[in-house]
Design brief:
Helix content is 35%, strand content 20%. With 153 residues, the protein is an alpha+beta fold. A four-stranded antiparallel sheet has the order 2-3-1-4. A hairpin with a 6-residue loop joins strand 2 (95-100) and strand 3. It is elongated.
Length: 153
């Protein structure tokens, strides 16, 4: 794959295994690709240092939690207010992702609320009061069909 041209075959194999299961031990990875656990650790440390690997995390499916509501917002904003809007949304605990987009929608925002009431509170007490917002479209997620996290090799 073109975007992996800066990584050698061993690093690509390590990343593929970590994507499959980030809980593999260095020894398990080494056994699967034919290098020592020390070499695996050194390569993973180097990938982390370069920023190729950003973090290891647990992904929780909000639809499996009772009452949780997941929603996407598209915000069209006046350019002069964009940074202030980003700052306010960034510090809101309900907001999980913020993307700057092309086209008429400047920001694409994902939020996971603990309940329908919590989502309504986010919309009416926070988003509706953001300065410079021209338009807001919201979409509640009914079901998750496919959800790929990060880069897939």
């Amino acid at each position: 794959m073109v975007y992996l041209d800066q990584l050698d075959a061993q690093d690509q194999k390590i990343l593929s295994l970590l994507i499959e299961n980030a809980r593999y031990t260095y020894s398990e990875i080494g056994e699967k690709i034919g290098i020592s656990r020390v070499a695996v650790k050194a390569r993973i440390d180097a990938l982390e240092k370069r920023g190729v690997i950003e973090e290891y995390t647990t992904i929780i499916n909000p639809q499996k939690l009772s009452g949780a509501v997941s929603c996407y917002f598209e915000l069209e904003a006046e350019p002069a207010y964009l940074q202030e809007i980003i700052e306010r949304l960034y510090h809101n605990e309900t907001v999980t992702q913020i993307y700057r987009m092309t086209g008429p929608c400047c920001l694409h925002v994902h939020a996971v609320a603990s309940s329908q009431e919590d989502l309504e509170r986010l919309l009416h007490q926070e988003i509706d009061h953001l300065p410079g917002v021209r338009r807001v479209n919201s979409r509640v997620i009914l079901s998750r069909i496919k959800d790929v996290k990060g880069l897939r090799l």
